[in-house]
Specification:
By secondary structure, this protein is of the alpha/beta class. Helix content is 34%, strand content 21%. The longest helix has 17 residues.
Length: 293
């Protein structure tokens, strides 16, 4: 690996850096990253989110920012803010594509160059937390981000799995990756751990249950919590997209929502997943509070 002269200046005012990883695709890393960001903001923190899933960027849609574009300042790229308070900002290759359906067909060196630019040329400013959403696996993007953050003293990684054995088996590879590159594991989240009925709020375990907790015990890392599938959260994301597009939309209770009045940060407080993520986020904050960058 090439040596560097210290942490990038773009990260100098960021207190904590946390990666969201999983060896398995389709486990909901972007959903987890989004809700961690929202929960951190609700705790009073300023948060940036970096999406390094170059071939499948989904965070612009998750945050209702698909129509936004980044712009260049004299210092570098300025991330996209979710609202005027500037408590939450996002950077993704999705903002650089002309159309959501455009494919990114790049070899490893170009991916590495893009990630290097994301790390070094974004004007993040002062942030309490930078969350980095990664693609599945342990390939080019992961090696590149580990290299770029090596001198920045990242706090560690949150690993996401689903309950099934096929998912936990792949997450074991991610645990091995973290140890090889010297990245602390802050804990494991078991996503899609049951299904919340939108009518009676009963949680049904349509998949298996407990695989994430068992994995955490086996590798002696913290288990941060189990997160069920909640149709209300999916609806919230779609309502946000419709509101931003100027379409007529209801907020799930039959009340009219508007682009001007729709705030994902505020609306998320009504979601049943919000208190679950509040407990998870408190553990992440506790695990990172003593890390000094």
């Amino acid at each position: 690996m090439a040596t560097t002269s210290g942490p990038p200046s773009s990260l100098s005012q960021i207190r904590h850096i946390v990666l969201v990883l999983s060896g398995k695709g389709g486990v909901g890393k972007s959903s987890i990253t989004t809700q961690l960001a929202l929960s951190l903001v609700q705790l009073g923190h300023s948060v940036g989110v970096l999406d390094i899933d170059l071939t499948g960027p989904s965070l612009p849609r998750m945050f209702g920012l698909e129509s936004k574009k980044i712009h260049q300042s004299s210092q570098g790229w300025v991330p996209v803010y979710t609202d005027a308070s500037k408590r939450l900002c996002v950077m993704s290759i999705g903002f650089l594509l002309k159309d959501r359906g455009d494919s990114v067909v790049w070899r490893g060196p170009k991916k590495s160059a893009m990630i290097r630019q994301f790390v070094r040329d974004v004007v993040w400013g002062q942030l309490d937390y930078l969350l980095i959403d990664t693609p599945p696996g342990t390939s080019d993007e992961h090696i590149s981000i580990a290299e770029q953050l090596r001198d920045a003293n990242p706090d560690g990684a949150v690993l996401v799995t689903t309950p099934q054995a096929v998912a936990t088996a792949d997450v074991r590879k991610e645990l091995s990756f973290c140890r090889k590159v010297g990245l602390d594991v802050l804990g494991v989240i078991e996503n899609m751990s049951g299904f919340l009925c939108p009518h009676c709020a009963e949680c049904s375990h349509i998949f298996s249950h407990g695989g994430g907790e068992e994995l955490a015990k086996q590798y002696d890392v913290p288990f941060l919590g189990a997160v069920p599938i909640d149709p209300q959260f999916v609806l919230l994301i779609e309502e946000q997209h419709a509101a931003a597009s100027g379409e007529a939309v209801t907020d799930g209770k039959g009340e009219l929502a508007s682009a001007k009045g729709f705030s994902l940060i505020e609306k998320y407080k009504e979601c049943k997943l919000c208190p679950i993520f509040a407990k998870i986020t408190e553990q992440v904050v506790a695990a990172t509070k003593d890390n000094i960058r």
